[in-house]
Each structure stands twice: as structure tokens, then as C-alpha cells.
Prior knowledge:
The chain is of the alpha+beta class. It has 2 helices and 4 strands.
Amino acid sequence: MSKITGNTSDGYHTFNELYDFRKAYNALLFNEYYRNEKFGAHKSKRHDDGELCFGGGWFVVSAELPTGQITNHYELKDWDLFECEVREKAVAWDGHTPAEALERLLKFAESQD
């Protein structure tokens, strides 16, 4: 079996391409939330305990949807893509898994008529 890397493809996109799409969609979402003063959309280089995200070089974006908290981490090189409130420390993470964050996003999307 071949080693899986960011250049591994499903025949249509590489993992790197999919990650870049996720980042772009996420930036659009958080920027829109912030412009409309919704869901406490913010970014921080530090987690709620004051520690740098992953020891530095990363930041976290967070929002509190009616269906629950969503968060993602990105490298600092992408800081300016996210035009939202800057906080010294992010809000406390509620312990959600990636699967739970996806469920919260989909449930919220379904409620938008």
C-alpha cells in the first residue's frame, strides 16, 4: 500500500486541495458570521488556558451556533483569511469531536429555511 500524503488523490482531488477548500469555505463562513455579529465568531493564537495553539504557529477559529460550538485550527500563514474578532484567548472548547462539529453544522444548515 502506498504512503498516504497530502498529494494522495481520490481521483478528483488531493487531500491538500480538499483541505484548502475547507479552509476557504470556513473563512467565508466565519467572516460572514462576524460581519453580521453572529455566534461570537472569533480567532485566537491561544486556547482558553492561555497556551499557544499546538505550541505556536497555529490559531483557532470558534463560533457558537444554536446547535453547538464549532472550531477549526489553521496555520498562522492563513490568519488574514479570517476577518473576525481577535481574542487574546479562545473560548473554552466544549470537547466536541470533528464528527460532532459536522453534525452541528449540518443540523444548523437544515434549520435555515
